[in-house]
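Hello Y.,

Per our agreement to keep a running log of every chain we model this quarter, I'm adding this entry. I've kept the format consistent with earlier entries: sequence first, then predicted structure.
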Amino acid sequence: MQFRPLQFKLAHAIVALGLMACPLSSAIAGAGVSAPATLKADEIALAGHKALYDFRMTAVQSGAGISGIRGTMYYEQADSCEAWTTDHRFNVEYQYPERRPVENTSHYVAFESKDARQFYYSSEREENGLTIEQLRGAVKPNADGTAKADFSRPDDLSFDLPKGYLLPTQHTAEVIRHAKAGDKFFTAPMFDGTDADGPVEINTFIGKKLTEDELKKISTGNAKIDASLITGDAWRVRMAVFPLKEDKGMSPSYEMDLILHSNGIVSWSLVDYHAFKVEQKLVALEKLPAKSCN
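Predicted structure for the entry above:
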């Protein structure tokens, strides 16, 4: 059984690489082209930050073909005034019962304009030092609210995105907006370009808000975590991720429990891949300096 790299698909997410496929200044929206609905700038205040997470496998089913997973993830989200830029870096060791461990590294970068009209993504994955996957592309909105994700690498890959689709940072902001409104459920299609499987549908259940004591425990005893970034509201959230290319009614590809803060930071998650579970813990968190935007 082959295991793909862990994709932290929060739409922050969340979900792993290389250089941008297009210049960041390229405009893909022409006259009359509309983009998905966007949030007002003052409605959801996301924090530019960089974070480091440790993760490990916490449970595995008999016959899963794997005995352990451990690694780290570096995550950075920066506010470039007109857009959000995202950088994910995974370093993972997959351990097997009857063969040598496999070292897997992945790197994902994305540029998402705040008006949702421009989205560029690039990812690269290596296994034991050899490149085994490269993905690059851009999303081109259509006038009717749909869009097309066109890959330049590989150049024969593309996906049609349905009306109402969300980009990664958009999705995170929408979950927070629903949490602030007291909603319990939120469902939306999302595309992030982290893999070659195309858009997904994410069913989100928003649970209880964390207490002050629970918030304090996240940074207690760890000077590498900037506690000022995790003092606001935070919720326990559960997400079920379904591939849109498959038939309706199937089980989710994976499910995830997480702690989502009102500024977009995720301080903990537990990802259930059915055959095994992986826990991800925040070990370092730092605020990025704000840029002067005219």
